[in-house]
Specification:
Number of helices: 15
Radius of gyration: 22 Å
Strand content: 15-25%
Strand order of the largest sheet: 14-11-13-12-16-17-15
Structural class: alpha+beta
Bound molecules: flavin-adenine dinucleotide, (2R)-2-hydroxypentanedioic acid, zinc ion
Length: 451
């Protein structure tokens, strides 16, 4: 039998099989620098047929496969644990003309979210997902993680945008449903099964996605508030006045300090506040203007144009990179019912302090996130990145409040051991049965989702 390297080179061309550690390094360390692992090689197929060839070759040689898009995932799912082939989808750049009648488009797995957004806008439409990693995160990766982001309050997560997929299964067979037929009730929905499967059930090669009408008027407001309760109260005032609210984001003084240190940005408001609500309304001019006139806003900065809006968004969007510049954080991505969010926030400080080893000094906790959907990002700097105590304490707290241990980033390797906090033994058994049915040899992303 040929070696795997020979088979891969024959399938996709030797120039697309990378084995030199200098070339593979960028693929085998994750965005947070918390997860890394060696790959036998990186394979970069350029078509769906080539992806199928790569998967078949790996199956023949019993070598595991880690699918990777933009490598912006935050739960360690996009890098190998120990060896195997890293299958990069970045060359899958198909981008069909927008179907403006149906408001749909087909896109290759390797197209970035920024690329898809620009393509939709050129046709007078919007893609419903927006996230700070848009320049690197891909269509395939966002489907595989069911990414949320900044506009979920209005458009839902990636699942809600997904009308069909093309994917290569573990045996190398190709399933394809890119027709965009909305009225289609013919059994199991494989696209929805692959959404959130984190590379464990198949390699997504393309998708059919829904688009939304472009909004002519957008107003962005950044308001200083006393804390999370005040932010929620302000949001409750905004929503009935402006049903077109498409973002409601929260951050606190600790995060703002890091962002300003990292970016050199000036203070957003004349005086400092314990916390901030960033809200964006998109819709008819009168609705957008109503937000700007809201008497409850108090001290706020208001932007009515793209440049002003981008300047306000920078305070929120640059949190992740500012935290990363300060160290390797423990990243927890939790959600609870909105009625419990303030109580959960109140309990976080003691939970984090209690779980941080005394020798590590006082932990720095940065809390921010998509408050409109009850999703907080809790980043903790200080405790050793390998020490799981803080992670387990914060995720345990979210579960105790009836919430989710992964609001939008997924389970990956990071939380595979504690999936049981959110899923019953019966649910995990059903998920394992699906995995075993579609990938009996366990070749696709082993160690992700299931420990
Ligand atoms: P990767 O990181 O390459 O992979 C992620 C997972 O998907 C892995 O398990 C991988 O195996 C699998 N995968 C990738 N491509 C495929 C494929 N074609 N077929 C099958 N499996 C595949 N996430 C949010 O939800 N909301 C946010 O607001 C958000 N903001 C972010 C901001 C920053 C600055 C950063 C760095 C990250 C952010 N993320 C956010 C996390 C990340 O961008 C998302 O998880 C995104 O969906 C990952 O896409 P990717 O293409 O980079 O996937
Ligand atoms: C965001 O909302 C991302 O900016 C990243 O989901 C969150 O860095 C994080 O913890
Ligand atoms: Zn987020």
């Amino acid at each position: 039998m040929n070696s795997l390297a020979d088979d891969l080179a024959a399938a996709i061309g030797a120039e697309h099989v990378l084995a030199d550690p200098d070339l593979t390094a960028g693929y085998t360390t994750d965005w947070t620098r918390r997860y890394r692992g060696d790959a036998d090689c990186v394979a970069r197929p350029g078509t769906t047929a080539q992806v199928a060839e790569v998967v078949r070759a790996c199956a023949r040689h019993h070598v595991p496969i880690v699918p990777q898009g933009g490598n912006t995932g935050l739960v360690g799912g996009s890098v190998p644990n120990r060896g195997g082939v890293l299958l990069s989808t970045r060359r899958l750049q198909r981008l069909d003309p927008v179907d403006t009648l149906a408001a749909q488009v087909s896109a290759g797995a390797g197209v970035t979210i920024a690329g898809l957004q620009a393509h939709a806008r050129a046709a007078g439409l919007e893609y419903g997902i927006s996230l700070a990693s848009r320049d690197s995160a891909t269509v395939g990766g966002t489907i595989a993680t069911n990414a949320g982001g900044l506009h979920t309050i209005r458009y839902g997560g990636t699942r809600a945008q997904l009308l069909g997929v093309e994917a290569v299964l573990a045996d190398g067979s190709v399933v394809s449903r890119l027709g965009g037929v909305r009225a289609d009730n013919t059994g199991y929905d494989l696209a929805q099964l692959l959404a959130g499967s984190e590379g464990t059930l198949g390699v997504i090669t393309a998708a059919r996605l829904r688009l939304w009408p472009a909004e002519p008027h957008v107003v962005t407001v950044l308001a200083g508030v006393d804390g999370i309760e005040a932010a929620l109260a302000l949001l409750a005032e905004i929503r009935p006045r402006a049903p077109g609210v498409r973002a409601a984001e929260y951050f606190e003084a600790a995060g703002l300090t890091l962002v300003r240190e990292h970016t050199g940005l000036p203070a957003p408001l004349p005086r400092a506040y314990p916390a901030y609500l960033l809200a964006e309304v998109a819709g008819p001019a009168d609705q957008a203007e109503r937000l700007a006139d809201l008497p409850l806003l108090g001290d706020a900065a208001v932007a009515m144009d793209l440049t002003g809006s981008a300047a306000l968004w920078a305070y929120r969007e640059r949190h992740t990179e500012a935290i990363s510049a300060a160290g390797v954080p423990h990243k927890l991505d939790i959600a609870v019912p909105l009625t419990r969010l303030a109580a959960l926030r109140g309990a976080l400080g003691a939970t984090v302090r209690g779980a941080s080893a005394p020798s590590g000094g006082a932990p720095l906790m940065i809390v921010f996130g998509h408050i409109g959907v009850g999703n907080l990002h809790v980043n903790v700097l200080g405790p050793d990145p390998a020490d799981q105590a803080v992670d387990e304490a914060v995720l345990g707290l979210a579960a105790a409040y009836g919430g989710s241990i992964s609001a939008e980033h997924g389970i990956g390797r990071a939380k595979a051991r504690i999936l049981r906090l959110n899923r019953s033994p019966q649910e995990i058994a059903a998920m394992r049965a699906i995995k075993a049915g579609l990938d009996p040899a366990g070749l696709l992303n082993p160690g992700v989702l299931f420990s």
